[in-house]
Fold this sequence. Notes:
Blueprint: E1 2-4, H1 6-9, E2 17-20, E3 31-33, E4 36-49, E5 55-59, E6 62-66, E7 73-87, H2 94-99, H3 103-110, E8 115-117, H4 120-139, H5 144-161, E9 165-167, H6 172-186, H7 194-201, H8 205-216, H9 220-238, H10 243-249, H11 255-266, H12 270-282
Parallel strand pairs: 1-3
Antiparallel strand pairs: 2-7, 4-5, 4-6, 4-7, 6-8, 8-9
Protein name: Helix-turn-helix domain-containing protein
GO molecular function, one term: sequence-specific DNA binding
Pfam families: AraC_binding, HTH_18
Amino acid sequence: xxxxxxxxxxxxxxxxxxxxxxxxxxxxxxxxxxxxxxxxxxxxxxxxxxxxxxxxxxxxxxxxxxxxxxxxxxxxxxxxxxxxxxxxxxxxxxxxxxxxxxxxxxxxxxxxxxxxxxxxxxxxxxxxxxxxxxxxxxxxxxxxxxxxxxxxxxxxxxxxxxxxxxxxxxxxxxxxxxxxxxxxxxxxxxxxxxxxxxxxxxxxxxxxxxxxxxxxxxxxxxxxxxxxxxxxxxxxxxxxxxxxxxxxxxxxxxxxxxxxxxxxxxxxxxxxxxxxxxxxxxxxxxxxxx
Length: 290
């Protein structure tokens, strides 16, 4: 079993917080650590195991926590990307005590069996805050500690106020929605219909739509569009494929429709997103002017 120590990960002296989201997660060995961890599933799905007999499915938008000393691992992962938010609550001072008055934060702090699902747009806002924290910790500009603490408190308040539903691994509706989302993810390039998706959940269309919204905070179709936009972002950042080809590979009927959907969720065009990603990755000098 692996054991992760805080001194290996908290690289800023006397500032116990670190966020990791670098690479897609594969199956892991049993491990534990001596710090508190919040986890946000940014992409994909898998299984979080707490023992040989206790586990639950996790998918994009789920939030859960692992306390110090708790043994766990991940299995059956599929293209899963996590935000691992490692910290010691004491560094937040009196604000942590106030945050624990929020039922969601208190539940997460008390037990790793508590899991919540963030609505799509809440998750997007949360990811923006986490990426800003990662940037501050990486660049360490003047007063970065103040900025990181403020951003992290904003993230926790956003989480605590979110209109979320607590999920239970024994809930057959959650398992049904999980199967439907897996089917969506594996067939993004295909023309999917509501009848086809609900069939994989073994629910009739109307009840499926009701359950899906209750579990994820959005409709099946809007969720599918967001999955396709995430696929577009991945292809834009990792390949040099033409945008028209990316639209087809992501399941959009044409480039124009893809661009409208992309701008609606990302507030920029696919071309601008690709250029911005390359500026961050290689520096401004490597990007020719438009």
